[in-house]
Structures are given as structure tokens and as C-alpha cells.
Amino acid sequence: MNGAPILEIKDVVKRFGSRTILDGISLNVVPQEIVCIVGSSGTGKSTLLRCVNGLEDIQGGEIRFEQTRVEARSKSIKAVRMRIGMIFQQFNLYPHLTALENVMLAPMVVHGEDRKTVEERARALFEKVRLSQRINAYPAQLSGGEQQRVAIARALAANPHLLMFDEATSALDPETVGDVLAVMRDLAVEGRTMLVVTHEIRFAADVGTRMVFMDQGKIVEDANPREMLAHPKTERARQFFSSIRG
Amino acid sequence: MSGSLVFLPLFLKATGTTIWLSWLALLIGAVGGTLIALLRTSRLWPLRVIALLYTEAFRSVPILIVLFFAYFGAPVMLGFDVSPFVAATFALALHASANMSEVVRAGIESVGAGQWEAALASGMRMREVMRHIVAPQALRVILPPSVGVYITVLKESSLASIIGYFELTRTGLLVRETQGGGFGPLLALAAIYFILSYGISLCGAALERHYAVGGATSTDAVVGGMA
Description:
Order of helices and strands of chain A: EEEHEEHEHHHEHEHEEHH
CATH superfamily of chain B: MetI-like
Distance between the termini of chain A: 34 Å
CATH topology of chain B: MetI-like fold
Number of helices of chain A: 9
CATH architecture of chain B: Orthogonal Bundle
Order of helices and strands of chain B: HHHHHHHHH
Helix content of chain A: 25-40%
Oligomer: heterodimer
Strand content of chain B: under 5%
Shape of chain B: flat
CATH architecture of chain A: 3-Layer(aba) Sandwich
């Protein structure tokens, strides 16, 4: 779990107009780390992920992914995005394509791979997310949990070096959350590098190798998950963990 | 009325002319309207303003005025005569493009931000997102109101009779004159327009069913009919 960082975030500032969303964030991620980002709503966790693949531009600091500087409006952003898989809270599957087509589109269009290779890999991915029998269904015919697992397969299809989960289970029915978390666990066991914004503290404690607590656009604590849960160093983190345990 | 069957070939030919004129105008209008819609959704505000002015101008001015401008104005402003056909096509297409631009814009905007983000995050370029994600979804939203636009163009094409173009209405009126007036030719005109419009509606409804979510789509060609 050591080696050169795959992702380097340094002093990043993100503003929307006069509001500062990210206020000097620094974070390095090395291969095979599973970094869980936790904190209250509106503290900039999702925005941080969106800055990493250039869905948002930044107003200060620097982000490097595998040595490439991430610049939202530059042509080089494509090369970064090709190596990062992102999973969204609202799944964002393409409704006009079947589950299989959803998974196959980017490898064919963006990576220029041939159909046969991609289809073979896609079918294997559906097995991995335990949805082989729903391969030809359209998103509207799938439950939320199934859609999110298709979205995970879609993100994996391009062989990404980093997976980013943006509150992947927040929009799901309680009974389907487990299916999605189980798939995420499998990925962790495989040794995938993951950046996970989540409210599932149990998952973060079990699977995460590292926990980052954010508050008001800043990283307040950064430690081993079990350690942070047992002994939060700041009052703010203590409050947060006790409030979500109910 | 028995003798009026003599005019049947004439009516058929004129119906063909009307279909050709309105179809051509719709085609040009759809292409123009799509371009205007892309300007309307551009990131550069001057382009958005130009597109907005264009749309509002041609939706607000009666088509008859545009037609007169094209037919009587062209010789004055451009220095050459235009045929009634060219003037009529031009006027109808301008009007149709203004209407189509709103329809296409609504279609493009109906595709949510999440779709753009997912596609961009996978590494697609804007053009690829447009082609593979936005266009196929927008088409389904665009189709029903474009049928309405086409029916409007079809009916508006009757105005070309005023500048002397022998489409359906002008032909019907001529037949009426040769018969010394009467309602017969007018009824025939109304019936033909009704049949055309209703036919277009039915075709539109059939297309809509074909493209309903979960059906075959144009993107199947890309991913290669595997469903």
C-alpha cells in the first residue's frame, strides 16, 4: 500500500461565485488505497470528486492524476477521464440504451476498442455485479440497486485506475443498499484504488483503508477509519459521528 | 359534379406540388432550426442573443409579410427576380426554422445534466455526447411537436397561391373560376388538406411508438444491434 501517489491534490480551492466550497484541500492517494470521505452535507465532498475528473474547474491549487495535471477546460482532460471511473448518486444510466449497451458505449466510442472484445469484457462484468440475467433490460426496467450495479459495471468497463463513488447508495431503497455495498466490497478486495464519498460509516470502517473527515470545505481529520471512529480528535468529528449513529 | 372528375389529375398534381413545397420547406427549416437551437444552447452569449432575435423575429412577423418580402423585396434588394417557388420555399422555411429551433431546443434541454456528466466523465467529447447520448434522447421529445410544425407548414403553403404559385389552393381556385364559382372545388381543397394533415398525424404517432423508450434506436447502429 505504498509507492508513488496515483492522485495528488494540493491546496485546492473551489469557489462558486463568492461562496468557497473547497478551502485548501490537500490529499494524496496511493494505489490500492480505499479512501472514504465523510462529513455533513454541503461540506464539499462531492465537489472534491468532481474536481478530480474535471467536471468542475478549480480556482486555486493543483490536482495531478498519474502525473497529468487535471485541467477542466483543457484537451488533456480526456486522458484523465479515460482512466477514472465515476459512479453517481443518481446512477445516470443512459435510458435509451440497454444495460449491456450502457456498459459497452465508452470503451467503443472513447477507447476505440472493437465490439467483440468489449462485449466479452462487459458480459464478465455483469457476472461480477451479479446481473447477468438483466443484460438486455433498459434502465427503466431495473430497480435502483440494479441500475447502480450496472453503473458500476459501466465504470469498470474502461479498466480505470481509480474508481470514484459519489454517494452511490444514498438514492437507494434500504433493501437494495446491501447489494451495491457487497459489489463495492468485492472491488476493494480485488485491490482497486477507490475514492468513496459515503454516509455508510459501517462500510467505511470495514472496507476503507483510510477515512477523511471534511467540514466546511476543509479536511479536518485524516486517519485509519477504526481509529477515527474510536477516537475522533476534533469536537466537530465527535459531533458528526455521534449524530449519525443516532 | 359528374364532370368534375376531369379535374382529378390536376388536383393530384397540385397535391404533389404542395407536398413537395412544404416538405422541402420543413427540411430546410429543420436543419436551420437545429443550427439555431445549437446557437441558443451555446456557451457564448452573443450567439445566444443572435439566435434568440432570429427566433422571436420570425415567429412574430406574419408569414405573408415574409413571403412578400421574399417575392417583391428580392428584386429591389438583391437585384434579381426570384420565382414564386423559391420565394415561397424561402418564406416557409424561415418560419419553420424559427418554430423548429424552439422545438429542438426544448428537446436538447430535456436531457438532464446527469447524462452529460456521466458521458463526459467517461471521456467523451462534447460532440460524442451530443451524438450518442443527447441526440437520441432529444429526438423522442422533438418528434411529436415537429409533426405539428409540419402540419402548420403544409397549411401555410397555401399562402403561396397569393404570389401566383400553382400549388393546391391556387389550382383549386382556378378550377372554381373555370366552373363559374361554386363550393365543389373548395370542398375538394378542404378534404385534401384534411387528408394530408391527418395522414401526417398518423405517421407521426406511428413513429412515436417506434421510438418509445425501450424500443430500437439510432444508437443501436453504433453499439451494433445486439439486443
